[in-house]
Write a structure and sequence with these properties.
Number of helices: 1
CATH architecture of the largest domain: Sandwich
Strand order of the largest sheet: 3-2-5-6
Number of strands: 7
Order of helices and strands: HEEEEEEE
Strand content: over 45%
Shape: elongated
Structural class: alpha+beta
Oligomer: single chain
CATH superfamily of the largest domain: Carboxypeptidase-like, regulatory domain
Radius of gyration: 20 Å
Largest sheet: 4 strands, antiparallel
CATH topology of the largest domain: Immunoglobulin-like
Length: about 110
């Protein structure tokens, strides 16, 4: 009987923890169904053009970080050097809704 009570209490506690974690994640969500991609230009001298899924999202100066709200799912991105230096080749990321992913382009 004690084992059943303990199992029930552990199950109840775990269910409560999962629910509270899910609620906390929703509270931190910028936009439901979207995630935040943060890209940093780790170069000391080169300006980078940011391409996400083939769309130009502007440029990042050396040391600058840009934040991009993207729908959940797979996305391709690249940091292309446009001021005399190299950049970072194309990479893929799977964005999860209500999460943040960060990448730095260093070379």
């Amino acid at each position: 009987m004690k084992a059943i009570k303990h199992g029930f209490l552990i199950s109840l506690l775990c269910t409560g923890l999962i629910t509270s974690c899910t609620e906390e994640k929703k509270d931190n969500c910028i936009k439901p169904g979207y995630g935040l991609l943060k890209l940093t230009n780790g170069s000391n001298t080169t300006i980078h053009k940011i391409l996400i899924d083939g769309t130009n999202y502007g440029t990042l100066d050396p040391g600058e970080t840009g934040s991009y709200l993207l729908p959940a799912g797979q996305h391709d991105f690249a940091s292309v050097g446009i001021s005399g230096g190299g950049g970072c080749g194309q990479a893929s990321i799977i964005m999860v809704a209500c999460s943040t992913e960060a990448r730095v382009c260093k070379y």
